[in-house]
């Protein structure tokens, strides 16, 4: 089961990385286009090379239309695409100033409680994303510039949130089992302790 969850989380992380890379490229191209457009509208180019400047401007050089709308929706998806792997590997940051001195049995109990609460919170987040998506779907709301339905962004985020909730339930169940049996089932925590 752990192999399946690991593969699922890694595939979502790879998908998130791909989307993030595309958003970075889009942002760079949009900034370059905006800069070139500004330069071509500059007095120097308009007075010394108006034909050249206007020919390039006629090609549509400029910022990518709706780039911020795509970035907004894309980044929301990217965040939800990376959370499953972080959840599965215990990669969330933790501050263990007080708990590092506690016995391992107490730390295991704390981890179990934290993972169960975290699973519940992630289920609520996925549920709220579903409700938000349905609300946007029913309202027919679209984005300002590109006019794509807003619910699409919610749907993509919901996919990541649902996978995260499933993995969180799995991790919480394993932590409960580990606590009750006293055995270690999940691989050693890779967490980012601070």
Description of the structure:
The model is unreliable at 190-194 (pLDDT under 50). The chain has helices at 2-40, 43-48, 50-58, 67-88, 104-139, 151-181; strands at residues 93-94, 192-193. The protein has one domain (2-189). It is elongated, with a radius of gyration of 24 Å. Helices cover 74% and strands 2% of the residues. It has 6 helices and 2 strands. It has a two-stranded parallel ribbon with strand order 1-2. By secondary structure, the chain is an all-alpha fold.
Number of helices: 6
- Strand element count: 2
- Give the CA-based shape: elongated
In helices, the fraction of residues equals over 70%
Mean pLDDT: 91
Straight-line N-to-C gap? 30 Å
Count of the domains: 1
Biggest sheet record: 2 strands, parallel
Multimeric state of these chains?
single chain
Summing up helix and strand content along with how strands pair, one would put the structural category as mainly alpha
Query: What's the Cα radius of gyration?
Result: 24 Å
Bin the strand percentage.
under 5%
Strands side by side in the biggest sheet: 1-2
- The residue ranges in which pLDDT falls below 50 over 5 or more consecutive positions are 190-194
Q: What is the H/E order?
A: HHHHEHHE
